[in-house]
Design brief:
This protein has five helices and no strands. With 168 residues, the chain is mainly alpha-helical. It starts with 5 loop residues before the first helix and ends in a 5-residue tail after the last helix.
Length: 168
């Protein structure tokens, strides 16, 4: 796709996010299964439900634009998820793996927040106010998921991983 206008960039970035969200739909159940802490499993399962909503919102935006969300592969998400997959394959203490899963998930959340912040801003500038509102809602949910993961890490998961020092 040739990027000749902000509208072109907006559509291209939306397609990237659509690919990213669909890749995440496949990865989150694996992350939930790999987690040993029930509250972390629940967090991943909850975010899976939200991710389905994120995909639906992007599809709604594309329907209004009269185009397809397909046709682009998000290489950044592919890389982030590949790192997470490698991590899950490691021979690791369960508590340490949970801490690592949170770190991996937060890298994903931060990537998504950056992407949604950009496309929301583009949508506003281009006069796509309904889309901007949908994108802001997703951005808010991604931020809340990141904060929930931070709280889990700081209140239980990381201290459990620290307690695992010297034990395998």
């Amino acid at each position: 796709m040739k990027l000749e206008s902000l509208e072109d960039l907006y559509v291209d970035e939306l397609k990237d996010l659509y690919s990213a969200e669909n890749q995440l739909l496949k990865a989150l159940p694996k992350m939930a299964k790999a987690a040993s802490a029930p509250n972390l499993t629940k967090a991943f399962e909850s975010h899976l439900k939200q991710t389905r909503d994120h995909v639906a919102r992007l599809e709604k935006i594309f329907k209004k634009l009269g185009g397809s969300p397909k046709g682009k592969k998000c290489k950044a998400m592919e890389g982030l998820l590949a790192e997470g997959k490698d991590l899950m394959a490691e021979d690791a203490n369960e508590a340490v793996r949970d801490a690592a899963l949170i770190g991996s998930a937060q890298r994903v959340e931060h990537y998504e927040m950056a992407g949604y912040g950009c496309v929301r801003t583009y949508a506003r500038l281009l006069g796509h106010n309904d889309a901007a509102n949908l994108l802001q809602k997703t951005l808010d949910e991604e931020g809340a998921a990141d904060k929930a993961l931070t709280k889990l890490a700081e209140t239980t998961i990381n201290s459990g991983a620290n307690d695992a020092n010297g034990r395998a």
